[in-house]
Backbone:
């Protein structure tokens, strides 16, 4: 009974073959991929497909880190591929994401929507269609890996750094967690100017003056990062901390300043909008 229920739920989460055939009839593969992406987004966010602009950012639809992970899982299940959420940062729109699938998984997309040069019958439920082509796709990928000698490379975290309220590094954070210490406190002395401004609110309402304070916010050596002191003064403190902690993470991993001179590396940063620019503009 439990197995039957799970199967029913899975099929309910995927569009029916009849609906697909009606919508995809006569389309090229890119149009099919865009439809697939829109359909997955619509199901996850309960957002009407017709209102999804392919050039609009995924974040504008209401995606967050949790729903992006779900989006990756849905696409992985539909296409029988290993899709991870990090690709959405490099390809943040439906248009660019569809282009990514067409370029990165060209053979897989051809196999998913065609068989032997003929369009797959879209009356076949997508979960059955994935099983139908899985064997041929695995054989193709296996042959390609043997020819190129490419194997999946494991991923390991070899360096770590961070700055947290009342903790200058990861080790101090673990002590805080282990001791269960409360780090939300009154605004410190160096924030006295902020406290006074909050006391002078127009409606005279009491303002919450307790928050977590990250230590060493003013400890930054701009010339070390080849930044002028004047430019550093106008930088968002979070940007300064990011530079510092990134460097510390590299040191923690055992890499020096010349370790990547002849290599290309990638860095992915997740950040939210802040009000520091507004504060600088007011001065």
Residues:
């Amino acid at each position: 009974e439990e197995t039957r229920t799970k199967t029913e739920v899975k099929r309910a989460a995927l569009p029916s073959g009849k609906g697909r055939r009606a919508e995809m009839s006569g389309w090229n593969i890119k149009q099919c991929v865009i439809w697939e992406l829109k359909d997955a987004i619509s199901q996850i966010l309960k957002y009407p497909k017709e209102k999804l602009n392919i050039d609009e950012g995924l974040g504008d639809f209401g995606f967050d880190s949790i729903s992006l992970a779900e989006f990756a899982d849905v696409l992985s299940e539909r296409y029988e591929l290993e899709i991870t959420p990090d690709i959405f940062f490099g390809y943040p729109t439906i248009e660019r994401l569809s282009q990514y699938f067409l370029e990165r998984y060209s053979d897989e997309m051809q196999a998913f929507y065609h068989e032997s040069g003929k369009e797959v019958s879209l009356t076949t439920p997508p979960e059955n269609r994935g099983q139908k082509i899985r064997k041929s796709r695995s054989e193709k990928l296996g042959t390609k890996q043997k020819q190129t000698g490419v194997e999946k490379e494991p991923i390991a975290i070899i360096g770590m750094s961070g700055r947290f309220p009342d903790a200058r590094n990861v080790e101090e954070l673990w002590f805080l967690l282990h001791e269960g210490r409360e780090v939300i406190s009154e605004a410190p002395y160096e924030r006295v100017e902020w406290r006074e401004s909050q006391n002078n609110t127009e409606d005279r309402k009491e303002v919450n003056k307790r928050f977590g304070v990250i230590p060493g916010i003013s400890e930054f050596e701009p010339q070390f990062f080849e930044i002028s002191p004047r430019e550093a003064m106008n930088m968002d403190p979070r940007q300064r901390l990011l530079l510092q902690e990134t460097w510390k993470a590299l040191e923690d991993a055992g890499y020096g300043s010349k370790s990547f001179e002849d290599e290309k590396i990638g860095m992915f940063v997740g950040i939210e909008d802040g009000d520091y620019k507004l504060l600088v503009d007011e001065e």
